[in-house]
């Protein structure tokens, strides 16, 4: 069964000017596929960012700004963390919130993981192309792909559901994945049962579990979604439209994007 971790039911651990909430752990999901923390860093405080020798990961700023070693980061950035990375994230003057994800034993998910850079790489995801759903008003922006992170161990995107939109029911084979709700509220249909999701909630899906999303509110429903490993097969439920994505020719600020991504069906995105 899928796992839902609700923000208002979690407990943060105080840690040197930070409040760390363990969202996804082996105890929560029953395996070591991924670890995910939400961290609130008080203005001017520092969070130790340390990976085990066999781990890779990523860090995304949700609110505020700061720096990871010498890399200035804000809400436009996602940073990919190489094997065994050790550093410190220091918040700016304002309180800052981040997602800190780790993939243990990452080599099992990518036979070419040695190609991943050994130093920090951060991407301004607002320069990535906005993709439009073929059948409705949903939009997608890729946040982690082999072309961006140089690994197939994980893959991620941000998906926006305007009011009245819905995704066709489907399931995945070959990967597990989570959705962290960034903004708004929506309904997750999990094997036909409706579950309300709000900003700060996390939904974890295992393989073979049918799921779909609906936005029945009057505000956008937005989540980031990450797969471990990145490649997987998407299987659509009978009668469902394939979820295909069209290029819009612009980034999230209406500029020419940093790269071009053509038409493709969800799950058939290995070369991106």
Q: What does this 3D model show about the protein?
A:
The protein is mostly beta strands and 272 residues long. It folds into two domains: 111 residues, Jelly Rolls (Sandwich), CATH 2.60.120.10; 139 residues, Sandwich (Jelly Rolls). The chain is built from two helices and 25 strands. The chain has a nine-stranded antiparallel sheet. Strand 7 and strand 8 form a beta hairpin. The longest helix is centred in the N-terminal third of the chain and has 4 residues.
Please name the CATH architecture of the largest domain: Sandwich
How are the strands of the largest sheet arranged?
1-20-17-22-15-14-13-24-25
Into which percent range does the helicity of residues fall? under 10%
**Low-confidence runs:** none
Rg result: 18 Å
| Mean pLDDT metric | 95
Q: Which CATH class of the largest domain applies here?
A: Mainly Beta
The ordered H/E elements are EEEHEEEEEEEEEEEHEEEEEEEEEEE
Structural class of the helices, strands and pairings?
Answer: mainly beta
Calculate the terminal CA-CA distance, rounded to whole Å.
31 Å
Q: Please count the beta strands (DSSP E, at least 2 residues each).
A: 25
In the CATH hierarchy, what is the superfamily of the largest domain? Jelly Rolls
CATH topology name of the largest domain: Jelly Rolls
Q: Total number of helical segments?
A: 2
SSE blueprint and pairings:
Blueprint: E1 3-5, E2 13-15, E3 18-24, H1 26-29, E4 35-41, E5 46-50, E6 56-63, E7 65-68, E8 71-74, E9 77-81, E10 86-91, E11 96-103, E12 121-124, E13 131-133, E14 139-144, H2 146-149, E15 155-161, E16 170-173, E17 176-183, E18 185-190, E19 193-198, E20 202-205, E21 211-214, E22 221-228, E23 233-236, E24 244-247, E25 264-265
Antiparallel strand pairs: 1-20, 2-3, 3-4, 4-11, 5-10, 6-9, 6-11, 7-8, 7-10, 9-12, 13-14, 13-24, 14-15, 15-22, 16-23, 17-20, 17-22, 18-19, 18-21, 24-25
